[in-house]
Structure formats: structure tokens, C-alpha cells
Amino acid sequence: MTQPAVQRTDANRTGPNRIDTTRPHPARVYDWFLGGKDNYPVDEELGRQITSIDTGALRAARANRRFMQRATRRLAREAGIRQFLDIGTGIPTEPNLHQIAQSVAPDARVVYVDNDPIVLAHAEALLRGTPEGVTEYLQADARDPRSILEQARHILDFDRPIALSLIALLHFVADEDGAYELVEALVDTLAPGSCLVLSAMTADFEPENVQRGIAAYAAGGVTLVARSQAEMGGFFEGLEVMEPGIVSVADWHPELSATGERLDGDGPVSLYGAVGLKP
């Protein structure tokens, strides 16, 4: 595919430092959950507060990360998908999506999208892909699909299948803020054979723990939305949900882990995950 030059937004063009380290930030708290080092004491404080009242939060975050890795591996290996669009990327934590995809298919094309200055500051780590493939980072707001698609079209071929990843993103977008419309606008542009990979928080399994976690985030200035399995199903309207359906991320093909072992402990975690195929 012939493509025009793309203006890549990366870490060495961030301009003035706009990162506020006096308030906890969801991406940095998540990084702390995953055992990362790109967080500050205020993030660790909130993370420890959340894990003290929501005992499954840390396991859920790690299970969610492994769900992304397994889904990416399966789509690259078994479905033959060679293009990936990851929106709401978050702070890089290895192995990242492009590392999984390009380990299976070195020529895979991966586009990361985020508008957070914290992620932007670490974007350079997301651009170290294979020489055969393409790995790009775009700065855009997840709530602005038109801008995302306009930029991504310079890199991805929307006439061919794309795996759209919305991992742990939509619980930050309320229904009244257009969560379902956002997903619909993105999926509508995808070619047949494309897939939606989605995970989001639920209170179906551990309602008391999750509500306490939501309250802790709210005290830190972050609003979260927990959705039921039926509400999650609304994101997959018109898609064929692959087996095993909409399940706890820990229960989505654990046999596809890199080691072939289940690493997420016993029982479900409070995030649903699923992969839908566009007919």
C-alpha cells in the first residue's frame, strides 16, 4: 500500500512538561499494579489503598494484561491478522502489543493511540518494532474517533482486516458520554474479517470489592463505570463473539499464555473480556 508521510508524535517532541505528579493518575496506578516503575508515590499510595479494600484489583490488572497478550497472539497466529489498532495504549509495559504481534508476524503493522502526556513521554518505547513491520504512536483522544481514523488511515489499510483493541478503556467512558457510539463508529469503518478486542470492568463477580475500588478512584478524582455481562454485549452488536464468549479475562483461553500455564490464580477477576469478529 502506498502511504504518505506520517507526522509521528514521539517522546522527544513533548514540549513543556505537563505531567502532574501531585495527583494520582489511572495510567500510573495501573503501571504500579503491573509492577512497573513509571509511577510516583501518589500513584503507589492510591494503588495500595485500592488493593487494601479491593483485594482482587492487582490480580485483575495483571490478568487483563495477559488477556491482551493472548488475544493478540491468537489473532496474529490463527486468524492471520497483520494490522492492529490499539486505542488507550497506556504506559508501555513489556511485552507490549506490537512485540506479541511481531513475534508471530514480523511484518505486522501496529498503531498505538493515546492523548495522555504521561503516555506520550514514554512513546519512544512503543516504537521499537521489527524492521519488517511498522510501529507508530499517534496522539489523539479516544473520544474523537474521526481524528483517530483520519490519522490511522495513513498507516493501516482499512480495506483489509484490522484488530481493534480497546483494553481497559471503556470503564473510563460513561454511557452518557457516548461509550457505545464510540465503539460503533470505530467498528463501522473496519473491513470484514476485522476483530474487536475489548476488556472492561464489571461488578458481576465481586460487587462489594469493586464498589469500594470505584469509591477509592473517585476520591482520587477518577470516575469508573462497572458494566454487567449484558451491557458488555452491547459493544459487540453486529459482531460474532468468538468462543468462549464474554467472560472474565482470566478465563479467556488461558491455554494460549506464552508458557501454556494459567497464571491468574483461581476464579474470575472483575474485568470482562471478549473478541468479536466482523462478518
Count of strand segments? 8
In angstroms, what separates the terminal alpha carbons? 23 Å
Q: Could you please say which CATH topology applies here?
A: Rossmann fold
Strand residue percentage: 5-15%
Total separate domains? 1
Oligomeric state of the chains in view:
single chain
What is the H/E order? HHHEHEHEHEHEHHEEE
Structural class: alpha/beta
Supply Rg. 18 Å
Helix content: 25-40%
- Name the CATH architecture: 3-Layer(aba) Sandwich
Q: Return the average pLDDT rounded to an integer.
A: 88
CATH homolog superfamily: Vaccinia Virus protein VP39
The best one-word shape is globular
Q: Which consecutive residue ranges, at least 5 long each, have pLDDT under 50?
A: 1-17
Q: Tell me about the largest β-sheet.
A: 8 strands, mixed
Count of DSSP-assigned helices? 9
Task: Break the fold down into its secondary structure elements and pairings.
Layout lengths: L25 H8 L7 H13 L3 H21 L5 E5 L9 H8 L4 E6 L2 H5 L12 E6 L5 H8 L10 E5 L11 H10 L6 E7 L5 H13 L9 H5 L6 E2 L5 E2 L22 E7 L2
Parallel strand pairs: 1-2, 1-4, 2-3, 4-5
Antiparallel strand pairs: 5-8, 6-8, 7-8
Describe the protein's architecture and organization.
This protein is an alpha/beta fold. The chain has one domain: Rossmann fold (3-Layer(aba) Sandwich). Helix content is 33%, strand content 14%. It contains nine helices and eight strands. Strand 1, helix 4 and strand 2 form a beta-alpha-beta unit. Helix 1 packs across helix 2, helix 2 packs antiparallel against helix 8 and helix 3 runs parallel beside helix 4. The two termini are 23 Å apart. The relative contact order is 0.16. The N terminus is likely disordered.
